[in-house]
Amino acid sequence: MTILNIGKASYDITCPVDEYPIEGTKYLLNEKLETGGGTAANVAYLLGKWGETSYFAGVVGSDDYGTKIKKELEQVMVKTELMEVSYDVGTPVSVVLVNKKNGSRTRFDIVSSTQPNLKKYDYSIRPDVIFSDGKEYSATINALNKFPNAISIVDAGRVNRDLLELCKFVKYIVCSKGFAEAVSGLKIDFNNSASLVNVYKKLKDKYPNNEIVITLENMGAMYTVNGEIRIMPGIKTQVVDPSGAGDIFHGAFCYCIANGFDMEKAITYSNITAGLSLGKMGGSSSIPMLKEVISYYNQKFKKDVVIEEAPKVEEVKEEDVLPDIPDAATFKVIDPKDLETVPMFSIGGAAISSVDNISPSSGVENVQQ
Question: What is the pTM (predicted TM-score) of this model?
Answer without folding.
Answer: 0.81
